[in-house]
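Lay summary. Proteins are chains of building blocks that fold into shapes, and those shapes determine what they do. In this project we predict the shape from the chain. Here is one chain we studied, written as its sequence of building blocks.
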Amino acid sequence: QVQLVESGGGLVQPGGSLRLTCAASGFAITMYAMSWYRQAPGKERESVATISSAGAGTNYLDSVTGRFTISRDNAKNTVYLQMNSLKPDDTAVYYCNAHLAYSSTRSTFASWGQGTQVTVSS
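And here is the predicted shape, written in a compact code that computers can read:
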């Protein structure tokens, strides 16, 4: 069964940091680009960060560039999102997913997981 389980979210003050983890099971992520997405209340789900299958290329939403870092450990079938200098606008449920083409962030492979809530508030 293909599953993605996100974890690591929580409540953090502005300027704080969190590290999210995406654990995949039922398939090997090795051949896939991986992305983090987020969805805030009343807004569409948006791609936040993408990493190529081998980890050589990354792409970020403009508003998180320089603050977020996506990484992967294919041997552990796991993807991470290091989030620094968090802002209230980063508040959302964060999801991960896989896609075959690096640029095709909307062509997701797996069903959506439960996501992990990130709340940035003072």
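What the prediction tells us: The chain has no helices and ten strands.
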